[in-house]
Amino acid sequence: MASERVDLDGNLIKSITICMIGAGGFIGSHLCEKLMSETPHKVLAVDVYNDKIKHLLEPSASGELPWADRIQFHRLNIKNDSRLEGLIKMADLTINLAAICTPADYNTRPLDTIYSNFIDALPVVKYCSENSKRLIHFSTCEVYGKTIGCFLPKDSPLRQDPAYYVLSEDASPCIFGPIEKQRWSYACAKQLIERLIYAEGAENGLEFTIVRPFNWIGPRMDFIPGIDGPSEGVPRVLACFSNNLLRREPLKLVDGGQSQRTFIYIKDAIEAVLLMIENPARANGQIFNVGNPNNEVTVKQLAEMMTQVYSKVSGESSLETPTIDVSSKEFYGEGYDDSDKRIPDMTIINRQLGWNPKTSLWDLLESTLTYQHRTYAEAIKKAISKPVAS
Ligand code: NAD
Ligand code: UDP
User: Fold this and answer.
1) How far is the CA of 98 from the centre of ligand 1 (A)?
2) 109: how many CB neighbours lie within 10 A of its CB?
3) Where is the NAD-dependent epimerase/dehydratase domain (predicted)?
4) Domain count, the chain
């Protein structure tokens, strides 16, 4: 498997050790899986939780895991643990995924959001810079905020011109709402850590890559409220809509579901991250959009498609009223605001890594909702049938 692998320039890929912070989350779990099954690299997996990577850490009934000596879990909170610098020093590369990154938190827990996405990431950048270690840092497409086009009159033909909406790493401005719209606390914290990393590169020679994910979705994303997360918790849209479908409730469209998003299958996106890991000469100093510009829908269209796909994979009929509108204030509380449209410019990642996404929205929803149904349908049925304590 491993010995004959070459990078994009034909050089043999050497095995490295990766300190992956936030390895127990959605993206981290898929990245660990990929690294264990397809590469010879070692992973020091850092997180406060490990439920989503348990299958990679513990031998199954059928025997020892083939990668058992290549992955180690370190349960630590990077906010306050002196072991962090030692782990970064032991590794060739650090990948930082740790963050509070669910929109329901941005306006309701703005301090935690800013601390998590800026303050807690500072030591990681500092240790990488001081110890001359390479860093791949996960930012977000949300640093672009709103499109220029959304400020044009509703009937302006310029709204159809890509110059007014396509989001480019080296050209687009970052446009956030006012401070009282605390939704932007996350985007602003992510923007400042990007600027700090960029400055460390410019002034102190830090070797870095910044990733801006555009709505990566797939199995193991977030949680289903009341099953493997808090009953009152509000995850990202894929898990919210999955939860509604599993419980046979209407899907809630925030402010009518008119915002647009491009969704990419997690497995396509992980291919891009692996290329970054294994092609440092092409990835260092770069900021990469990673998304699928071909998979654009409004949130309302997403709800309709998920309803159809779920009906197909579960064999259940659709509800008579499959969606309902809710106001953002009711759903997220005071201070919510939204990104109107997110189309990634793919020029830089194409040029540097020759990468393109492959999976259509229908196909990625089919495999993801098959997983959701298989994983949660029984548990939901049990939870619903339990008599409520009087
Ligand atoms: P996730 O919440 O599933 O994973 C984050 C992980 O970080 C969690 O397992 C969490 O326990 C861990 N973590 C948080 N704070 C920590 C701390 N102080 N110490 C140790 N571990 C900590 O989220 P994800 O979707 O996997 O996102 C990973 C990164 O990608 C985040 O930085 C996020 O902002 C960014 N991102 C993701 C998307 C997406 O589409 N999934 C979009 C934009 C940005
Ligand atoms: N949304 C919705 N219903 C839900 C959850 C989310 O209409 O039950 C909307 C949300 O307002 C936003 C979009 O779906 O316009 C995507 O939300 P997500 O939480 O996935 O994160 P975002 O893309 O905004 O970062």
Assistant:
1) 4
2) 16
3) 18-291
4) 1
* Residue 285 confidence (pLDDT) above 80: yes
Q: What is the pLDDT of residues 200-239, one digit of tens each?
A: 999 999 999 999 999 999 999 999 999 999 999 999 999 9
Pocket test for ligand 2, best of 214, 217, 221, 299 (most atoms within 8 A of CB): 299
Taking Cα atoms as reference points, which of 390, 328, 343, 369 lies closest to residue 150?
Answer: 343
**Of 57 and 63, the one with more pLDDT:** 57
The amino acid present at 93, given as its one-letter code, is L
ipTM of the complex: 0.99
Instruction: Give Cα 315 to chain centroid, integer Å.
Output: 30
The CATH number linked to 114 is 3.40.50.720
Is the CB of residue 254 below 6 angstroms from any atom belonging to ligand 2?
yes
Q: Which structural domain range is residue 157 located in?
A: 99-379
Distance CA 318, CA 304 (A): 10
- Of ligand 1's listed atoms, the one at least distance from the Cα of 29 is 26
